Amino acid sequence: MNYTNVQSGLSEYDKVKVGIFINYLREVETAKDKQQQLKNKWFHYFKDEQAISLYKQVAIDEGMFIDGDTITIQFKGKVMVSYNYQAYKNKLLTIYPESKFDIQNVYQGDSFTFKKESGRVLYTHELADPFSETAKTIIGCYCIIKNSRGEFIETLNKTEIQKMRNVAKTQKIWNAWESEMTLKSVMKRACKRHFKDLVVNIELIDNENYEPETVEIKSNVKDLIENCVTLEDLQLVYDEQKDKQTDQATFMSLLGTRKSEIKLELQKAATDGDS
Prior knowledge:
The protein is an alpha+beta fold and 275 residues long. The chain has three domains: 3-83; 95-198, no CATH class; 214-274. The protein has helices at 3-9, 15-30, 48-59, 85-95, 158-167, 171-176, 178-194, 200-206, 219-226, 231-241, 248-274; strands at 71-75, 79-83, 100-107, 111-117, 120-126, 138-147, 150-157. It has a three-stranded antiparallel beta sheet. Strands 1-2 form a two-stranded antiparallel ribbon. A two-stranded antiparallel sheet has the order 4-5. A hairpin with a 2-residue loop joins strand 4 (111-117) and strand 5 (120-126). Helix 1 packs parallel to helix 3 (48-59).
């Protein structure tokens, strides 16, 4: 990637923010795994024009830009933009700077109750063991937003969270950041329900990270497919899972997508070996 071209293509935008974006791109390009191999081999095929276009799409929302923290990029068949729950908060704060948020996961053993009284949201959340060093099971999450538009609460139970996880294109992010992704899911739901007029552009971009038609394919099966590194691995997953899937068409589509990604990775490896 020619970063001078990227900088030139974004010359009308804030130079500091563009600089942060370019530094983030450099990090993505050079990041290595434990074996000191490039983690993001797809970046070799990521063009200057694509980077410029993605930045401009995000920048339609005033003050928003791809910073590598609240707004990032990921690859699943193509390069996509991903917003975390903080990005949704930041968007609301540009319009309602007085907004107050409480976005929390509820873990097994916690006690959570709420009610609405004359438009006010009243709630209690008692944590069973906030300092536990063992893994805790998330049983739900909630998002409370209070500003001049009103007081709002949105909740997700364990079943709803699992459905959202099932439709995510990239399971690796859920596996690594489950608690963060549940918070994003409930924040995204709250904004869509109560502030849809403000997050139209974010929703349009962020929804590319989800495949609603894959809701019947469990996340662990999608995980198996994502973790395949060779075509032989894919064949093994197919042989093991083909008779267990009720949605054969979607199952085969996911296998086909991963097959294309593996071929791309092999092509990049071969190119690197010849150079």
